[in-house]
Amino acid sequence: PDPLRQLAVVVTKLDKHAAGAERLAEIRGKLDPFLKSCGFKDGRIRWLCASGTTGDNVVAKPSGGSALSWFEGPTVVEAIDAFEMVEHKRDAPLRVPVFSSAGAKQGGGAGQVIVTGRLATGCVRVGSQVSVMPGSLDTTVKSISRNGHKDAGFALAGDAVELTLGLDEEASCVSVGSVVCGPSDGIRAVERIKAKIATLELETPFTLGQSLVVHIHAARAPAKVTKLLVLHDPKTGEDVKKRPRLLKSYQTATVEITMSDKVCVEKYEDFASLGRLVLRLGGRTVGVGKVVKVYHT
After folding, report:
1. pTM summary value
2. Rounded alpha-carbon distances, angstroms, from residue 65 to 16, 22, 62, 275, 276
3. Is 24 in contact with 16 (CB distance < 8 Å)?
């Protein structure tokens, strides 16, 4: 299962409410339609309550005298433990989105770059030949820190890693949003994508040419909505209207987005973690979605 298809919604402060159960039902009734429009299914959503003040229902169930004693569902920890483990694609091409990078000079004068990230797919070993995109910077993995353990010989998909790469004058080209990949099956950096998005609460509707900031894995870039292609039914996903003139709050649509800078991105169905996107505007999240097509020209 996709990790974003399993969701626990924790509602707090219900212990301060005289009718906690009714308030939880009211909140659920308002949020359920939106969550379903984002693709979550009933069986994948767990509704919980917890108290941040007393810790009730976080680890242990509420006691008989608790203001949350009416709640009969799982604790927060039990809900997290019940999530199905995600199967990481270790046999897929290497993809490591870079969360941070720093240069380091060694005693002999050779330059190195230390990058941190999480292996989205594939595997890597010390001595592996890799490429950093964008820029097609070919280099070698000098050392690996895996899940906090230094001097690891290898790392697998799902691991949090710190990779030391042998780069010198090109070090400044490695930045947040770069992707470490294999030299023969690397990711490509593009400016234009097609995405299926779900809008959140909008102050004004989206129209053609809408300016946004797109966040994909660790990368971000100013962008514009250059085509409004199809409006979808938020419950069924079926096409409702082609070429809509605008998008309102809580609608689902397929759009074309053009970014001002090239970004390393993949189709969601091929590499889920490199194909999810968040749309921001004026410091607010105004939409979420997934990449359905990457335009390489």
Report:
1. 0.77
2. 14, 19, 8, 47, 44
3. no
